[in-house]
Task: structure prediction
Amino acid sequence: MARKRIVAGNWKMNMTPSEAIKLVEELKPLVQSDSVEVVYCVPAIDIVPVVEAVKGTNVVVGAENMYFEDKGAFTGEISAPMLVDAGVKYVILGHSERRQYFGEDNALLNKKVKKAFEAGLTPILCCGETLEQREMGVTIDFISTQIKEGLYEVSAENVAKMVIAYEPIWAIGTGKTATSDQAEEVCKAIRDVIRVMYNDATAESVRIQYGGSVKGENAAEIFGKPDIDGGLVGGAALKADFGKIVNC
Ligand code: 13P
Result:
């Protein structure tokens, strides 16, 4: 069964609403593709204008985070139903920057993953090791735990539809990309964890992205690996290079 490739831009804390609209217009002719799903994961304040700006194109919009409650006294948070109502389709959960700077752990992320599915959003669950963990040889163990705890009691049916992004922390924003073999090794291991937790069909259906200094010049080689179904792109998602990545 062929998995549809998915290339998502993670804009992080970049682009004011007016800058966002300009970027969407600039990228419009560059990201057209029938074979690749293209997602812009944008800051919360950019969601409404970007959903409007991508209307009539092949691009869909994602959020970079959400809270696990539907509504209430949670000052500053944004809920899954709010995202859905605004036209959002995907939500990045557990990016290493959220884990590192905002203390998000696997138990919290598990609640967010479940809520995203309940509301009708597709989560892009991020995982990845530090350089120290890689050097200690615990990469696969560490990532397996992130996946098992993050997906605790999530159904096979939902996991089959979701996206997992492997992002080695040492490759994020550093210009230091994992080699395509390093990326494939971990993405394959993630698929095998899903196989053990669920079954073959779920493992073959879940889409796994690589993220970490993906650029126009290295995307084709990385995305050419059998267990890598696309990328989660940071810095290069904010420029014309993103079109090259989508069409590589
Ligand atoms: P860079 O592409 O800037 O390394 O960022 C990767 C990332 O964190 C995407 O979520």
